[in-house]
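Re: the pair you flagged

First of the two:
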Amino acid sequence: MNRSDVLIVGAGPTGLVLALWLSKLGIVVRIIDKTSAPGTTSRALAVQARTLELYRQLDLSNAVVQKGHRVDAANFWVKGEPVARLPLTGIGEGLTPYAFLEMLPQDEHEQLLIERLEGFGIKVERSTELEGFEETGDGISARLRLHDGQQEICQACYLAGCDGARSIVRKTLDTGFPGGTYQQVFYVADVQAHGPTFNGELHLDLDEADFLAVFPLAGEGRARLIGTVRDERADRAETLGFADVSSRAIEHLKVQIEQVNWFSTYRVHHRVADHFRNGRAFLLGDAAHVHSPAGGQGMNTGIGDAINLAWKLAAVLSGGATATLLDTYETERITFARKLVATTDRVFTFVTAEGRMADLLRTRLAPFLIPKMASFETSREFLFRTVSQITLNYRGTALSTGVAGHVHGGDRLPWAHDGEGDNFESLKCLTWQVHVYGDTSDEMIAWCHEHHLPLHVFDWRPAFEAAGLGRNGFYLLRPDTYVAIADSSADPKVIERYFKEHGIRPFFGSP
């Protein structure tokens, strides 16, 4: 038990997904967490479309959708009345198999991941804390404090810090974590209640009162309330109870509380670590970046970190790539994290800003603009693409090259679906693969066969053109389903050169 390929510190969604992906790829993992039991009062709710797409690789998507709640609309309230409604049903129609907003509380989400991980024979080691570590010549030597108080020296090839905003891994690496903390104190409450806002849709109060959002959950009358606490109450955040929360916003949204299942307060930070990697140690999720809850991006971004790193670690550990592949993790993920923090910061500031001008913008301008924007398909599509993370790309980075049709190297492969099929079906395999839309050369077919590289040739159809895919070229897809090469030729030497330049042998390691 004290030797593994990868030691994962932290068993939140990021650590659990990393453990799952690595286990699926045959990598020996050990996952520890200092808590005695899984969390029951977690804040994250939204499972974005891109996460659901990637979850297909673990056969998790359907389970998440079945357990969660699909939100049909977002409603905006001012002075106790609904003033704008943004329909969300099919808002991403034609862009993804998951063209909706899915809500699943983080604690239920984690339990699903834990059960799947146990299917690989891996259990989270609870009440086990990382006290420190150092890099040796060929790995990591970590000091653990076990549940019985005993100390253990653990050996691993690599260490993954998924241990949250107060990460001991980040502190041990002495990596800077610049940013700041918002002045508002937030509260989160899981409640049983009734009223017009308990119709299965999302509701937000834009008024000058304390900010409040009502997030629907699966089950009659269940919802998660997320709001702000201002004035002098913020100075005693640690001792606040639900009774201390301003009733003004709750009354504005006509929420009739029957029972408070749990309640907690917290402060929101906006920070990105200076580095996501130092030698054999990596930072993921909240250990690497924290930001406002605007747009439900945090948990999904951490899961994206895990998937990006998992296939690269698996390739290196299995002999399918040189260790230089791991350099691309920080490059690809830190750019997105910095952009995300800046974007969510602007949204958060608008929603929670105080003062007469801010109130006028929220209560007068926003209710006027939201229905206008919602009436245009292009604006609805832009909103969905951004929030769902399907526009996240790695263009211009080391592993991304070329363009074919409207698709660039580094892009997420566009989804194309019609009555004849779905081009995402083959993406369930955690392997490198080639997609061709139209015709390809005999050389390409022979080369892929010889090198055990899966080749999927789709007869050309209008749906592919509509999705922006190029005809008769090829797309080399990474194991995380992002495009490595987009090329308009049918020349396998392009792929051969790519693998040679990057030290990759794609037929190694993947089941």
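Second of the two:
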Amino acid sequence: MDWEARMRAALCAARGVAHLHTAHSLAHGNIKSSNLLLRPDPDAAALSDYCLHQLFPPAPARPSVSGGGYRAPELVDARRPTFRSDVYSLGVLFLELLTGKSPSHHASMEAAGDGVVDLPRWVQSVVREEWTAEVFDAELVRMGGGAEEEMVALLQVAMACVSTAPDARPDARDAVRMIEEIRGGHGRTTTEEESEGTRGASEEERSRGPSPTS
């Protein structure tokens, strides 16, 4: 996937989570890359497997391992997923798109000597040493395309989403807004664009004055 495809996937995932949270007051509970379904229309990726956690009792979890690396730290005590834990999982998904690394791989393997066992903590350790360029997927770097600023911006969004303090995380709507801003407004809905176009046309007509009568 090139950078544009990854950005579209990130935006679609965030929009799906925001829709569940705001329109239905439901937590997804199982956000991960295998539940993000890509479609021929690049703007129509969809989240699957949502809210099935409500049908089953929560299973005991171990830190860094349960959920394949997507599970928020506060869910270790087997509480039900929340909007904030969904945002954490969404942030891990963003990191996966940026790094090309599997969260489950990092969750199950300790890094040599420093005890880093999950993707967010690994990224934090690299950024802390000011080696930010080392975070990004080598395939993205090879493709180039001048997307470095957007990659860094999405990394900042992802790191906010995976904050260990739930209250420090943005909500899903804020994540959508931030990603749309990174894309330079390309994430606006067709309705918004049409309404702006209509408003602009009306203002132009008013500036011309009344049309001559026959």
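The domain at 3-188 is CATH 1.10.510.10 (Transferase(Phosphotransferase); domain 1).

-B.
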